[in-house]
Design a protein that fits this description.
It is a single chain. By secondary structure, the chain is of the alpha+beta class. It has a 5-stranded mixed β-sheet with strand order 1-2-3-5-4, with helices on one face. A hairpin with a 4-residue loop joins strand 4 and strand 5. The longest helix has about 80 residues. The protein starts with a helix and ends with a strand.
Length: about 375
Amino acid sequence: MNRSTWTSWPTREALTRAPRARPRALIGGFVWSAVLAGLLWNAFADGRFALWQIAVGLGATAGCMAIGKMFLLTTRDHRLWPSLGLLVLLTAAAFGAIEAGAGGVAVVLWCGCAVMALVRLPLVAAVPLTAVTLCAYTVVEGDGWLTTVITTGSLCLGGYVLRLDAEARGSSQRLLAQERAAREAEAGAAALAERSRIAREIHDVLAHSLSAQLVHLEAARLLIEREPSTEFRDQVLERVVSARSMAREGLAETRQALSALRGEMIPVEDFLRQLVADGPAEVSVAGERRELTAEASQTVRRVAQEALTNTRKHAPGAAVSVRLEYGPDAVALLVRDSGGHRPPGELAVSGSGYGLVGMRERAELLGGTLEAGPDEEGFVVNLRVPA
């Protein structure tokens, strides 16, 4: 063995108990409880102890179990001196059990300390401690040199084998975690590549088409404006200007969708500030800011856009407040305006083509809620989605 083998700790994965299925955990607990009950029965069933002595013995047993649990925690955190101190306490408890006449309990404590030291401590500390505990066991038992050699050798071999098994299990857990992370990264890269491909297709077809429409509509507007003013000419001009505005909004939304597909979206807070830049509105953010899931982020953006579009359409000039709040497991958006009351039927229609009814369905698909309606001053849209 090289020097690092003697001084290094077992890995944290090796010192962390792997989660077990509930039936196995119940069986393991039953077995250990039966072993403990058998030891206590063997120690106190002969009637040599008074009731108070039995109570003290049970309390000492519970204390030893608590010390053993603490030892598992300190070794998992690679804390050497607290771990050694706890094993020394258990060794001293074994000597106390000898003085009380409970030799079987003392043997179990010494053998357990020897095995746990080999399994969970650096070998440079585990070997001396194991030697001390097994020497104590040899002095107490004294069943003959052959039996003693076989027993102590078996304990040493078993402890070291358990150590190697724990290390192998820890290495397997690390490899599985690395493989899982690699697969997730590969899946994420494949998804991003596919979204980029879709974004290029949309850009080549839809964005180019909308850009061409804008050019033609602008040319049509200029030609119409040169004609003498008549009622028919003014109606046509109004429709052309409206169509140009809708094409410009559609192109802007297409570019936002393309950015979302490519994973290039700006933070939600910045998007909201850009959204209200042209009107009498204010944006406030509360809670600890963090990156949202793509679905939650897109829902917040669409609902904010829809609510502000409705406000500009039905309550032009009204003051608007937009509040984004990050909660522990959700994000909330509150859009409030100071305009007049509007009929609920007007909620489903807006210039952007996305109604709040559709946004409510989208929020519900994510496990969230969307409430919209008039309040004392104006109109309120309240969105909450898990994130």
